[in-house]
Design goal:
Elements (H helix, E strand, L loop, with lengths): L1 E3 L10 H4 E2 L7 H6 L9 H7 L1 H12 L5 H4 L4 H7 L5 E4 L2 E5 L6
Antiparallel strand pairs: 1-2, 1-4, 3-4
Helix pairs in contact: 4-6
Length: 104
């Protein structure tokens, strides 16, 4: 299962716009486009506007995980995201955290 990383308290969006589930017969993009335009959220834009997420994205796109000394200079929130380094991916300019269910 892949879930978009978002801060729900800052953005009000429908669950269909926020989460893509493997069991769904539509791709995340197909499901998103099924929503009326006014209900769609541009997650790439929203994440880029978020100070913490934009820093995580910058570090992730650099290609190398920050060393401990550099990591200590980051905010606590950025450090928490970077603990999931191996699970973070960027697809279509959106940061995701990958998970698996029952080892799948």
């Amino acid at each position: 299962m892949v879930q978009a990383i978002c801060i729900a308290s800052q953005i009000s969006a429908s669950i269909a716009d926020c989460v893509a589930i493997d069991a769904c017969p539509l791709s995340a993009e197909e499901a998103r486009t099924q929503l009326p335009a006014e209900e769609r959220t541009n997650w790439g834009h929203e994440q880029a506007q978020d100070k913490t997420l934009s820093q995580v994205i910058d570090l992730l796109t650099s290609g190398s995980q920050p060393r401990e000394k550099a990591l200590r200079k980051e905010t606590l929130e950025v450090q928490q995201f970077l603990r999931e380094w191996k699970r973070l991916v960027i697809e279509h300019n959106v940061l995701y955290r990958t998970t698996s269910m029952d080892g799948q």
